[in-house]
Design a protein that fits this description.
Elements (H helix, E strand, L loop, with lengths): L3 E2 L2 E2 L8 H18 L35 E5 L4 E5 L4 H8 L4 E3 L10 H6 L7 H4 L6 E8 L4 E4 L5 H6 L8 E12 L3 E9 L2 H14 L1 E2 L2 E2 L2 E8 L2 E10 L15 H4 L8 E6 H5 L18 H4 L9 H14 L1 H8 L6 E10 H14 L5 E6 L23 E10 L9 H12 L3 E2 L9 H7 L2 H11 L8 H5 L4
Helix pairs in contact: 6-12
Length: 478
């Protein structure tokens, strides 16, 4: 049965597996761990990924996570969910929305997993008030590199609990996460504000984050898109229960990011169901579906709606990587392979305009996505450190996302544009996510991503180095 809200299907039905079924899945996982030769690197046996960096092939068997893909239990009174580590957000949202609940942060792509969003970080338009996905985790079971299941909470195995975010499977893999949920209303009312320059946009964003409102209306969701230096937008979402017509960017022909644009004479308004709002970016993978022709009206009309989604585009990307299609096309035109520039970075909000203006002047990629975030302090408690991604509490950052490729000059070193971006991000006191290519040297990397704290965690929870270390995985692509 497909779950629905207001008569609209909200995604694939999520099976509630229960704790007994989950325990059986954990048993299979442990058995698969024991079957991996002692001299082989432990990896997941999964064919899909939301990572954009290349990974070395392995002939050794991998971890069987096939029994760790469901929602285990939902407590609608306590507003919590126990979720298997490989459960996708699509399945989790399908299970929670019928209760009028949602995760505090729902990353943009349906097939991102709970474990992946915590160990690899995730972000969305609630992050200015709810932080990052790992901040709503109450407890987590982790298969460590030592082959044991460890339960980590802020009080129990607290070093692992704090160090797991941004560890990318180098300290272990999440088997179960207990997370907080929040109440949501059936609809999201949207206002798109146009700006003539990014400095005015950044200043308005800063005020909205402080006030949690704009022009007297509460703001529950906040992100933005920059098309050019002279055309940028903030999108403000407000939850509502008021019935009325809604737009459809999930199964319809319209494209969400194009719907944002207007002449700026007044804010443009729109309205979505809560489910369609959460997945507004997945249908076209933000704007990246244009590379496959999916935004061409003649093609889009015949492209089945169920195949307009990020997981399908991932398969097309995999085919391109396997057969080198794009590189072959460039070669036929006498050009070297293009450099892939697929990154999400965070810079403090006071440096956001500086970075965006530099980027627009130097890097030929558009549009770019903006998403503000502040670390969340549950219950107003003590400030909790997250050592592997040390952004400061009580400080607003803005995630800048850009996903495309740029011309590569003959004879240029590998990743020249990515290296340039890395230097600029560090100069502006920022960080970048590690889901894609990185080029830092070891000292730079250690200074940005945990250093001695990571080394200590690695020695404690993976003493025999059964898992790759973070530098080997993120930069050396092992």
């Amino acid at each position: 049965m497909v779950a629905s809200v207001n008569g609209r299907a909200i995604g694939s039905a999520s099976r509630i597996t229960g704790f007994a079924a989950h325990a059986a899945g954990v048993d299979r996982l442990l058995a698969s761990y024991r079957a991996i030769p002692a001299d082989a690197t432990v990896r997941l046996a999964k064919k899909t990924s939301n990572l954009f960096r290349a990974r070395a092939k392995s002939t050794a068997p991998g971890l069987d996570v096939s029994g760790l893909t469901g929602v285990i239990a939902i407590d609608p009174v306590a507003k919590t969910a126990d979720v298997a580590g490989m459960c996708t957000y699509e399945d989790l949202v399908a299970a929670t929305l019928p209760h009028g609940l949602a995760p505090l942060v729902v990353p943009q792509l349906k097939t991102i997993t709970l474990g992946g969003a915590v160990t690899g970080l995730g972000i969305e338009s609630t992050s200015f008030r709810n932080g990052l996905p790992h901040e709503s985790v109450l407890e987590i079971d982790i298969l460590t590199g030592a082959g044991t299941i460890v339960t980590a909470t802020p009080e129990r195995n607290a070093d692992l609990f704090a160090g797991f975010p941004n560890s990318y499977g180098t300290l272990g893999y999440a088997t179960r996460l207990k997370i907080e949920l929040e109440t949501v209303k059936p609809y999201v009312s949207i206002r798109h504000l146009r700006f003539q320059d990014v400095r005015a946009l950044a200043a308005t964003m800063d005020r909205i984050i402080t006030d949690r409102s704009y022009d007297g209306v509460p703001v529950d969701y906040l992100d933005g898109v920059v098309f050019t230096a002279e055309e940028s937008y903030l999108t403000l979402g407000h939850q509502t229960s008021d019935p009325g017509p809604t737009s459809d960017y999930v199964t319809g022909q319209a494209i969400f990011y194009r719907s944002i644009q207007h002449d700026g004479s007044a804010p443009k308004t729109d309205r979505l169901t809560i489910a369609d709002y959460l997945w507004r970016w997945d249908t076209d993978w933000f704007w990246c579906s244009r590379a496959f022709g999916a935004q061409n009206p003649k093609i889009r009309r015949f492209w089945p709606a169920q195949y307009r989604r990020s997981s399908v585009y991932w398969k097309l990307i995999a085919l391109d990587h396997k057969y080198g299609i794009a590189d072959r096309i460039e070669a036929r035109h006498g050009n070297p392979p293009r450099e892939r520039v697929v990154q999400d970075i965070e810079v403090p909000i006071e440096r956001t305009a500086d970075f965006v203006e530099w980027f627009l002047a130097e890097i030929p990629i558009e549009p770019i996505w903006l998403c503000p975030l502040r670390l969340r302090q549950p219950g107003g408690g003590a400030k909790r450190p997250w050592p592997l991604y040390p952004i400061a509490p009580d400080r607003t950052y803005v995630n800048v996302g850009f996903w495309s490729s740029v011309p590569s000059g003959a004879g240029e070193p590998e990743g020249v544009t990515n290296r340039l971006i890395e230097k600029k991000v560090t100069e502006f006191d920022g960080h970048k996510s590690l889901y894609s290519d990185a080029y830092y040297n070891k000292d730079e990397f250690a200074g940005l991503y945990g250093g001695d704290a990571y080394t200590a965690l690695k020695a404690e929870y993976d003493p025999d180095s059964r898992l790759l270390d973070l530098y080997s995985k993120a930069v050396q692509r092992k």
